[in-house]
Amino acid sequence: MVPTIMPPLQTPDPRPSLHNFANPLRFQRLAGVCTPWAVGLGLLLTAVGLWIGLFASPPDYLQGESVRILYVHVPAAWLALGGYSGMAIAALAARVWRHPLSDLAVRAIAPVGALFAGLCLVTGSLWGRPTWGTWWVWDGRLTSMLLLFLLYLGVIALVHAWDDRARGLKAAGILAIVGTINLPIIKFSVEWWNTLHQPASIRLSGSSIHASMLTPLLLSASGFLLLFTGIVLIRMRLLIAEQRIEMRQRRRAMDIG
Fold first, then answer.
1. Do residues 50 and 73 make contact, with C-beta atoms less than 8 angstroms apart?
2. What percent of the chain has pLDDT over 70?
3. Higher model confidence: residue 61 or residue 68?
4. What pLDDT is attached to residue 3?
5. Scanning 94, 109, 225, 226, which has its CA 20 to 30 A from the CA of 119?
6. Cβ distance 230 to 42 under 8 Å?
7. What range defines the domain where residue 147 resides?
């Protein structure tokens, strides 16, 4: 009789994988730990960066004191673009991989991204008035940035356009994915067309900005990024709690019925 060889017992890997955090309860615990740090460090870095940029850094030799608006304008523009990219990735994950938190991420990111896109447009107009002599020009960069703001609003509107939330999320996700066509237009518009907007001063190959101005700009951008992340995490936690309340109400209605 040939003895049967039993395979060795495999103990489950205690290390959490990224897929494990798709569970809303696990995500709630992780977000609960990360959110205070993101918001606290974000406020600190933003305050330090803006204080240096607004009061301690020198004025620009061409733009003068108006350059200080850029310490808000540039980080807001970066976060508006980055936020839309993240929203589109979440929408793609929801459509392709059915990730349970992806649609919530789309809903959480859209209003925050719209806020930063609006802040970018407002501060850009405030900077353009003394620099260009006008509040607004219909050039490639400004027009495509305005379109980004409208795309954010479109995603928000589509989420609530139908009584069937799944249908609204699907339509909003499709718009978020299709809208990524606008991102390279924003990025390269100053190179493709003759515009008033200046080309990028910070590239992978280096920066043309002096360290006295670059330091507060990067501090402010880091703070904005952490605040963006913290606000999105807060919104996702609220949306998860809202879903749980809705499910309980449906169960109670079914029990009563």
1. no
2. 86
3. 68
4. 47
5. 94
6. yes
7. 34-197+213-252
pTM of the model: 0.86
Block residue for tokens 């003895």 = 3
Q: What tokens does 219 get?
A: 């501090």
- Tokens 């907007």: give the residue: 197
In a domain, 120, yes or no: yes
Statement: residue 200 has pLDDT above 80: no
**Does residue 70 lie in a domain region?**
yes
Percent of the chain with pLDDT over 90: 55
Residues 44 and 223: beta-carbon distance below 8 Å:
yes
Q: Pick from 100, 67, 101: which is nearest to 216 by CA?
A: 67
Would you say residue 96 lies in a domain? yes
The per-residue pLDDT for 60 is: 78
Burial of 85 (0-12, 13-18, 19+ CB in 10 A): middle
Identity (one letter) of the amino acid at 176? A
User: Residue 6: inside a domain, yes or no?
Assistant: no
Q: Which tokens is 10 given?
A: 């495999």
Q: Is the pLDDT assigned to residue 210 strictly greater than 80? A: no
Residue whose entry in the numeric block shows the structure tokens 């995603």: 155
